[in-house]
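Sequence in, structure out.
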Amino acid sequence: MMIKKYFKLHLWMVLIVPVLFITSCQKDLEESEVDSISATEYDSEVPFKWNELLIEIDRYSPNYRPPAAARMMGYIGLAVYEGVVPGMADYKSLKSEFVGLSLPSIEKGKEYHWPTVANAIYAEMFRAFYPHIDPKEILKIDLLEKKFYDQFGSEVSDEVKNRSKFFGIDVAKAVFAYSATDQYGHEAFKNPRPSSYVPPKFGSKGEPLWQPTWPDYTPALFPFWGQVRTFAMKESDLRAKPPLEYSENKNSKFYQQALEIKIWVDNLNHEDKWIGQFWSDDFFGVTFEPAARQLAIANQILKQDEISLAKSVELYAKMGMAMSDAAVSIWNSKFIYNVRRPIEYIRDVIDQDWKTALNHPQTNVEGLTPEFPAYPSGHSGFGGSASLILTDIFGNNRAFTDNCHVNRFEFLGTPRTYSSFIEAGIENAYSRLPLGVHYRMDCEEGLRLGYLAANRVLNLPWKK
């Protein structure tokens, strides 16, 4: 079955994915908010350029693979939102939602330049979260920060610019300090594959569980991520529904899902290969990782649509927080259920010589599989959560062409066009099937958790 046929059958999911909007009574503007130009009057150049740089850095930032990258995006997005929200009359701070988050306040009656505030926060947060990247990438941060400061020098007085800059720095420091109180997530990139983790070999019924997979046998990536603090998801949200019961019986549902993957991978057509490679984003140094891929999509839309600074900081905050929460719930569930990957099951039970279609385009190593259990799918969670946030900001019927990998020739990166963000998110999820790295149940549950994470974030009290 071609993957595009499956998508048509599942577009009904669009109808049951609720996009929640927050409505409440309008409060009077505080004195301080009427002394500065509204953030709605500025364009989105500052957030756009900084997130464009984030995507560049993401490709080469050691150990900032999923889910750590998504968490970083969540904290950066929250910091910029909190820095600019005093200039957003209809919105309010979320600080009361986060116990232990202490934020500085603006000086009442004083003028602030919100693009300068945002620029300072991005620069400060990038340096804080990326202490280990190549000096060439650090230089890019310095140059972009200076570019905007020089640009704004002709727009506002030095007094306003400096006041705005230092307020932004203080907000960034406060949010980064709050991040540091999350012992399982903060700086976890320093030890992404802890040697203290030994994956269990058998489950309660004697069934074999996930182990590092052929051909590289890379140890588990972020096995304790389920304990990372969330932004909006509840404790009860963090455990996926139980997967299909493990069985090696040919008539079992588990066997049939594995057999589907084997047949699919063994009979790939061009469309299958294109979809699988187009959404892969699996390899460090080759492309950005899956969460940054969603930022790349957002950036493309932002470049085409004229939205304000205020709307753009809302977009990036919601997207980062939703993807981060989706990742926590998915990684938590991966290491609770420890479901074997198709490569393990198929080689043990069906065909000992079988391999996946996930091949490294630079090293030419074939038959790879990501280094963590199968259920649920991380790609599905990132695609599902981001697609719902993009729909919230840009609308349900926003057609677009994804040019993320245009002019890449070492894999099939030819642009693909979609009628909606939801359609793209679904294709992203099920793209893992023709690669042979997931079962269908992984993608279905990953999407559900992604949608749930997005709705939890959308349900936060953003509006006054």
